[in-house]
Every structure is written in C-alpha cells, then in structure tokens.
Amino acid sequence: MRTLAIPVTLLQLAATAIAAAAANIALPGCQSKCGELDIPYPFGTTAGCSRPGFKVTCNPKPGAGVAQRLMLGDAGGPVVLEISVPNSTVRIRSNTWFFAVGNTSMPRLAVVPAGGPFVLRPGRNRLVYIGCGFRASSWTPLGARAFNACSTSCWWEDDTRRIRSGRCDGVGCCNASIPTGLTSFRTQFQWAGEETGTPATSPCTSSGAAVVVVEKRWLNCRTNVLGLMMSLLAFGRASVLVAPAILDWAFDNSSTCAEAAKRSVSGCVSKHSECVDSAGGALGYGCKCGEGYQGNPYVRDGCQRPSRHLHLSAGLIFAMGLGIGIFLLLLVLATIFATKSLKDRKAKKMREYFFKQNRGLLLQQLVDKDIAERMIFSLEELENATNKFDKARILGGGGHGTVYKGILSDQHVVAIKMSKLVIQREIEGFINEVAILSQINHRNVVKLFGCCLETEVPLLVYEFIPNGTLYAHLHVDGPASLPWKDRLRIAFEVASSLAYLHSSASISIVHRDIKTSNILLDDCLTAKISDFGASRGITIAESGVITAVQGTYGYIDPEYFYTRRLTEKNDVYSYGVMLVELLTRKKPTIDMSLDGVSLVAHFVQLLSEDRLSEILDAQVTEEGEEEAKQVAAIAALCVQMKGNDRPTMRHVEMRLQGIQSSNNFRAILEYKGCKSD
C-alpha cells in the first residue's frame, strides 16, 4: 500500500497545480466557471468582466438542481460547448431549421448575430441538408450571391446499405462548404416534381427537410449523421444529439497586430504573450502565450510555465516506476486471462444459442428436413477457410451481405456470404435464401453448398464463381465490351434459369432482384443467377400476393412498385431492363435521355420510331445488328407497363433459342463458304 501512496500523492499535486493555473483565466472578481465550462476573458457574464460583444450568460443559478448551461450573449443565444483561447474559437450547439414539403421560401437563418466578433469558420464547418427529393441552394444574407447547392435523392432498397453506413453523400443527406465571414444565410428548397405542381412524397419527404451548420469533424462520424437523419425522417423534430458548429473570433476585429502596435494598445497584456493576426474566418487579431507558456494572454500574468512542484530523486523515481510497472503488468496479465476466458465461454454459449434459433427457423421453411443436417458448416471451419474473415479475402458486397473467398480443408474453393448488419430482416433474408436455393438445381443458378448457423445472421457457402459479375464485364472503359454472341448466349441462359424458377421448380420462385450485378460469370462466361435473399416462393393459390416492395431502382417493375402485387411478371420486367442494358451498354439506374426520360422509356420510343440504331451499342451494331433488332423487340415486350401484356419467361427462352439457332446456322454456312438468305 505504501508503494501505491506515492502515485496518489503525485496525482493530488498535479491536480492542485492544474487548478491553480485554471483560476487565472478571468479578470479579478469575475466568474470563471459555468458548470464544468471555463469562462476565460475576454468572455464574461457581466459588462465589467467581459469585452464588448463577448458577453455570455450562465443559467440557471448554482443550487437550482439543474445542470448549468453557458449561452452566447443573452439567455436566448446559442449554447456554448467549449471556449478555446489558444485557437480563438467557440464551439456552440448548432440550430436545426425545418422546411415542410412544398415550402420554397427563402428565410434568413442566423447562426450568430451579425456585426459581432463571431463568424463561422469555413474550413471546419459544413452546411448539411437532410431529407430527400429536393435541390437546396444557399445565399448570402442579402440573397445576392448563391455560395453552394446540393441535391438529395430518395433511397431505394439497393441504397439502404449507403443509408446505414452513415454517409452524407446525396442519398437522404448532402453537405456543402460555406464561405468566409458567414454569420447567417438564406436557404431555398426546390422539391422534386415541383414543376408539375405535385411535390414528390416518399418515406423521407413526408417529414420535409432540414438544414443545419455542423462541425466537419463531427459530421465524419457515422453515428452522428444517422442521428441527424433519423430525427427528421422518423420523428420530424430536432435531434437529441448535440450537433456542434465552430465559430472564429478576434479580440479586436477592427485592426491588425501592426496597427495595434502603432497605437501602443493591445489586448495581449500578459507577460510572455504575443499578438497574432487572425488566420480563420474572423478579421482582426488575437493573442497567444509564447513558447513554453500556457494560460490566458488577455489577463495580467495569465501566461505561466507548467508547474514543477515535485523534485524527486532519480533513485526514488526508478523504484516507484519499477514497483508500479510490475504491479500493472501483473494486473494486465490477470485481466487479459480473465477476459479471454469469459469471452470464450460467452462466445460458446452464443454459438449454441444462435445454432438452436437459426436451425429452428430453417427447419420451418425447408421441405426436406434432412437437407438442414447435410448442409451445416461449423463457424471454426469457415474461419479457417477465410483466415478469420480477413479483409484481403473480400470478393465484393451484395444487397444482403459481404462475400469472402474461402478455401476449405479439402482445398475446395468456395464463396462465403456474411451479413454486415444484425437485424431480423437480414436473418430472415439469409434463411430465405437457404430455403430457396435448397430446392433449385439448374446449371445457370449459383449452387449453395451449405450454411453456418452458429452466428446471429447465418453464413452461406456457395460455389466459387471466379469471373465476376455481368455488370463488371459489360461496363468497362473503352469501346469494346462483351462480344455480341456472348451477350446473346448469356441472355438466353438467364431466361432459361428464370423460366425454370417460374415453372419447373417444386414451387414457383420469383427472384425480385434481377440485374446485371446479380448475374455471375464463370471461366467460360456461363451465366449464374445469384443473391436470392429477396426471393419469394409462391403457390398458384398465392399468385398476386401483396408484399413489401423489394428490388433495385431502375429495374423494379412499375406495376409491382405501385400495387405491391407479386407475380412472375415482375421478374419479366427486370429481365427486359437487363436486355436493354445488354443492347445499349447503358446503366438503367443512371443513364437518361437529354429530356430526362428513363433509359427504358427512351429505348422503347426509339424502337417504335425505327431509330433503334441511335441507342444501340456500336459493338452490337457491328457484330449482330439483325439479331439485336429481334432481341430489342423481345425487350420491349418484357417492359410493357401492364404485367398481363408481358410474355412468360418460357416464351422468351424459346424466342431467344430460335435467334441463337439461326445465328449458329448462318455461321456454319459462312464457314463452308456459303451465304444464307
């Protein structure tokens, strides 16, 4: 115990020295604390204790039983979170301004009163707009000059991963820079659909939008951004989070250090202090303590060297350090051992719990109960296969998880999918994928080897498809992409597998997320449909069942989107969009015509006007224009607005088979030196 008494004494002496240094920050007889916050001069709670423009208010009075808050100016001013004399900054709690849907006014939004010593620091703050379905612009207070603008879109199912990641990059939230010297601004929202007189509504625009000035470093935190977004989108009120903003201030914003020296008047009254011209957003000058000194340069004797009250011998310091070091080492080793043992026991119990829970969910959905027992992998086996899920083994991320490359103990190469998020929806999606794929046996559908049930969200083990996605092969830089003959064959293989899912499996299966990024290609460029997390099996009696909308924006069947009625024709529409993508090498989620018309609508219009060549990929025109015209006609049928007007996938498969057969026949004739009519 005597060994521990020395470090305790050291801490007490250090605390005394720190308290003594902190006391010399305000003018004599003036309040220097508000709760836990320091109030350094030039700030003060009364006129005699503060410089003009630096008044702060501390409420409530001590002893009221409520935590005290420091406010800039009077009681209605912004809440002060921190005052920094060395940096000449004040961190305040930022205000949030809300705008209802359809509100296009341009009010003046004041962060701090104009004309005072405070301005927003441009490099350390961002202007954040929260909501979706609008374009926001901000002007200087007089409205004469717009200094930034940004737009946000409403998210679709494929964007939920971006929303959960907490990025403020255009989906539900965007941010922009602010100019130097700003104290207030004007903001105007232009809502989507405004030109038609019907502002767009969605899960996010139903609560309107908001604008807030936020410290840039604070905005980089995922949890903070999600808190701001959810407060508006879910509750439509100010966030319970404290969103800070940084203000610059100058002791004298009317002169520089050189001008103050000429007048022999300077705020740097402490010895060992020096004048510094403002380098932030505020004009004027401030003061700082010289090198080796700390404290407040604006008060007499405010700059002091760090206290050195302790004069211990080298031998005593060594003995004290050795004793404390040995004690701490033993304490750390004991803690590590106890923590590891506890962690191992807890992990084992959790694995057993998850296995029991997930096995029960799986058995409820599987038709053949023996499948569950044959397909189970242990967590230890998959950890060994992926080097404990090393980031270097990541192959990519889908809408329902991250995919790792794994090598099993028998040297078999597999792909292992793991969910990034632990929510009930992901668990149900993974269990659904096992149940769906266990019933499928088709050469153009990715094969499921098994699953691990010892984690909260099951891990799925697939055959390894080494050649990436159709999307990656199609959208490459340069004029040349996949040859037309490969595109035509892939289109046939996908149609064949969908026809099987819709009519040949034991139960009709609707994939619900057909797109080029969910089509994998093996070494021979053979197509394999993947990602069945959103799929749904339906019986004849259930045809047209009402479900929550799932899929990817640009590929979703409009009729399904508005009615939520699930049928096989939903996949037919998505497949038609994929055909358009194969023919044009344009991205359905991005590319539009000059008039703002969607890729699919523009494609159908050009086809009906016999101007298909204007949108066809040049490589397709060169290698197979006649077949491309026939495939384009099939695509147009698949993307009919009404599901009843679309063909079945079996019909599409047969038509594509005919086109392929004709193509192969001509190739044989040309090889023999003949020409077909």
Description:
With 677 residues, the protein is α+β, with helices and mostly antiparallel strands. It folds into four domains: 1-25 and 254-311, no CATH class; 89-249, no CATH class; 354-464, Phosphorylase Kinase, domain 1 (2-Layer Sandwich), CATH 3.30.200.20; 468-677, Transferase(Phosphotransferase), domain 1 (Orthogonal Bundle). 34% of the residues lie in helices and 20% in strands. The protein is built from 16 helices and 31 strands. The strands form ten sheets. A six-stranded antiparallel sheet has the order 3-4-5-6-16-9, with no helix packed on it. Strands 21-22-23-25-24 form a five-stranded antiparallel sheet, sandwiched between helices. Helix 6 crosses helix 9, helix 11 runs antiparallel to helix 16 (649-671) and helix 15 (618-638) runs antiparallel to helix 16. The longest helix has 52 residues, at 314-365. Mean pLDDT is 82; it is low at 1-23, 195-205 and 671-677.
What are its keywords?
about 675 residues, alpha+beta, Phosphorylase Kinase, domain 1, 6-stranded antiparallel sheet, 16 helices, globular, disordered N terminus
Outline the low-pLDDT stretches. Answer: 1-23, 195-205, 671-677
Tell me, what's the shape?
A: globular
**CATH first level of the largest domain:** Mainly Alpha
Q: What name is given to the CATH topology of the largest domain? A: Transferase(Phosphotransferase), domain 1
Mean pLDDT: 82
CATH superfamily of the largest domain: Transferase(Phosphotransferase) domain 1
Radius of gyration: 34 Å
Number of domains: 4
Mind telling me which CATH architecture of the largest domain this is? Answer: Orthogonal Bundle
Beta-strand proportion:
15-25%
Percentage of residues in helical conformation: 25-40%
